[in-house]
Amino acid sequence: MRHLLFTGVAVLAVLSATAAAAQSKRQIGVDASERATYGEIRLSSGFADDPYTVSVTSGGSVDASDVSDGCVGMVSRAPDFQLTYEAGSLPLSFGTISDSDTTLMINGPDGRWSCDDDSGGDRDALVTYANPGSGVYDIWVGAWGGNSGSAQLFITELSGDTGGIGNRYDGSGAPDTSLTATYGEVRLRAGFSPDPYRVDVYSGGSIEASQLGGSCVGMIAQAPDFQLTYEAGRVPLTFGVEADGDTTLVINGPDGRWSCDDDSGDGPDPEITFRNPQSGTYDVWVGAYGGNGVSAELFVTELGR
Question: Does the predicted TM-score (pTM) go above 0.90?
Fold first, then answer.
């Protein structure tokens, strides 16, 4: 009798746990256990084709504010997209690009809800996980005021900075020197110390550098990766990259001309030397040959090679 009673309690415990798990997938009108409307994908940190993009239609019949505090817009019952992600050391960002006013609602691997309205700029939404966990991310693209429309959802590790990331992928298809450099900027004058000056970046983007002509190759971002304002002297100025992957360099100099390189450094590393550098601004992109973005170190030096 005791054995039967214990078995019955154990069964009830299992059933209760199963019911709780199922309930965690459902939250007042939305159901993360349903198949995502616009598909699903598995990505590991360092994935190629970054940003990964998918076309969706925003909106639905469920008020996101009923799902969790801080959520707004109208969303569908089923997720719009599902990402199964193997995390590394990079931040993970989700964003929208649309002519209509979009919102984001995401249920992460820990079951918590993350929502945003306009952090991507121009009424676009952006959610960044500074330390993302591995697991399933269920994603809803909402419509503010119920005004649904066509939208592009993007997933990227190219920047952990929420400021203006949407502008990097606004579809213009060309690098833009007027945008803020993703990995910072610095002012240096001839004879600077320490030399070389180094900065960590992540290569790649969604734009073909070959459209610039000449020897430009690789995939680059729309915004510069780094910006140097330089006061020239009488020594050459060299830009180079060190990385485990195949990287390229694209630089827009003070005279507005483009300089590009693929493999002039060590192995597959690029390097560009200005023999008689001008004073002014150098906008620098670190490209990914074949679109395979990697962590890299950009260096600036007057010491030569």
Answer: no
